[in-house]
Write a structure and sequence with these properties.
Length: about 425
Amino acid sequence: MQEDFLHHIWQYRKFAYEHLYTFRGDELRILHPGHNLKKAGPDFFNAQIFIGNQKWAGNIEIHLKSSDWYIHHHENDPAYDAVILHVVWEHDTDVFRADNTEIPVLELQHYVEKEILESYYSLSSTKSWIYCEKDLASIDRFVLKKWQERLFFDRLERKALLMHEQLFNNKNDWEATLFCFLAKNFGLNSNGDSFFAIAASIPFSIMRKEKDEVKNLEALFFGRAGMLEEEKQDVYYNDLKNRWCYLSDKYQLDKVFIAPVQFFKLRPDNFPTIRLAQLAQLYHQQENLFSKMMASESVSVFYGIFDVKVSDYWQAHYQFDKESPKKRKGLTSSFVDLLIINTIIPLRFAFEKHLGEEDADDLIGFLEEIEAEKNVIIDKFSNFGIRSENAFDSQTLLQLKNEYCNVKKCLQCEIGIELLKK
């Protein structure tokens, strides 16, 4: 049994609460169970109870065993001096406040029905993939939709926090912040961190000055990636190398490369050379990219903005000095979808939050225009009765799996709570 199960039992009164007695035999009545604020200190704040004829107002602490009070060192924390009731599954030792008064104890195991326990153990003990897999299809679609909205904004809040941190580093330059996160997502999982470091190391003022010459942008990117350090016969390579030397001197950039990039196990279209060349073309062709992203009202506008291809050289190369059959190498719609999902929508949320003008329907609407991702997790949910109709569905299911199912937060999940209610 986990402690969060007792939290669930207490919060939703899943026990015989009309005829309660403390461990010492005093009659106990619950007027209000308190509020679970999920912050440091006692588990439930501002509860109201009667013990005998005495009314108490204060906090509730919940443990599997009474002795957990001392294992967690609550006796040394003044935040627990206002605890009026210690709710435990098993009472194994008396607990005292700092003033040496004993804290009343409710031993829950005597008041929880067998069916509740069976439901909990059924939810938390057997699985082939996730614990609620057998019952997923029975969840009310309204409950699921509301929970998906919550998951969506939890994900955006986490991403927005990272973006605001980078915004601070960029001295409140939103264009520069967009550049960093676009670069990260151009690099995908293999090179995302390296691309982010490369972008963050190039002052965006330089990007603004050099955007009219795409080779200069390529020189900056490849130079920062350490890909212009060798001696080659390739004319294009040596041109970029000379430009990198000139630009690094002109702007007093450290010539030491920022982060290594990986080619291993990547399809040629995802080679860092191609993705950096595409990023250079994007910033060569587009001005005021951040403003355009914030003003766009449909996904089709984003597709138009990202309609870029590589330069002539890169159409016939995947690496320097190695010619290949000519190919346009533009951004595919599925790749643009990833940029919208992982960069544009989170940054738009962060910007609207900064302005105090969050538009939930607008952001959800963008994702509902995009096809659902195709991966093992989404396929598994589909097998258990939860299908993804669009990217909103697939994104929220990924959040659910990673942040709740994988860490067994069943009783902090609305699906788990709904199943226990049944």
